[in-house]
Amino acid sequence: MTLIDSHCHLDFPQFQEDFSGVLSRAANAGVRRMVTISTRVRQIETLRAIAEANDCIYFSVGTHPHQAAKETDVTVDELLNHAAHEKCVAIGEAGLDYFYDNAPRDDQERSFRIHIDAARQSGLPLVIHARDADEDVASILHEETGKGAFPFILHCFSSGRALAETAVELGGYVSFSGILTFKRSDELRAIAADLPLDRLLIETDAPYLAPQPWRGQTNEPAYVAETNRILAECHGMEASQMAARTTENCLRCFSKMPPLTEVA
């Protein structure tokens, strides 16, 4: 069974002491590739170095909405310049977070739109962070798609059904994390069950949101296999069938990522 963790944060300090172990456990779980996601453009060198040192790791470039007020000088051209690296496969994560409101909402929106422009120009998928901001995210997606389509992913999806349906309508992908496995996530599992198979992705968002068997512990890419298993159950499929689907979707979405070969 081949899996891809479409969203993790391998530069975070939780992984520094046992980085090789994290990669080994991922490989043993069938995770052939990982995309380590940017939260600060000003720290992109660390992500780039991790990707350059490991064949199985790719990276993105972007400013998390929590950091939007700290990186107001990030431009479309700067994002495009970093995105030209052969192992940079996505823009973001960027978006809106009204739960924490760690940055002013106007800064979040401005940054979001800059990242959308970069995704449109580069053709790389925009990794979208959306929390407690469903209506505004949907509105911006409709408005910006009207200016020209761009690929995107609603990452770590835990929003309402309407936003998921908007994403699919506009050609985007919906990525599920360990939240899907939580006991109280019945509504989320119902949404996942109704989404088309060709728009599903899986992720860990590691080191956060470990799936149910490891809930409260540090999450890591190997655990994406459990999210895949639960997503498969939602669709009445075998885990291996869902793994094949999400891997195919991931390679289509991250179109700059080369095809997988039979040899690991």
From TrEMBL:
One of its GO terms (cellular component) is cytosol. It comes from the Bacteria. The keyword Membrane does not apply. The keyword Zinc-finger does not apply. One of its GO terms (molecular function) is metal ion binding. SUPFAM superfamilies: Metallo-dependent hydrolases (SSF51556). PROSITE patterns: TATD_1, TATD_2. A divalent metal cation 1 binds at residues 7, 9, 93, 205. InterPro entries: DNase_TatD-rel_CS, Metal_Hydrolase, TatD-like, TatD/YcfH-like. A divalent metal cation 2 binds at residues 129, 155. Keywords: Hydrolase, Metal-binding. Belongs to the metallo-dependent hydrolases superfamily. TatD-type hydrolase family. This is TatD family deoxyribonuclease.
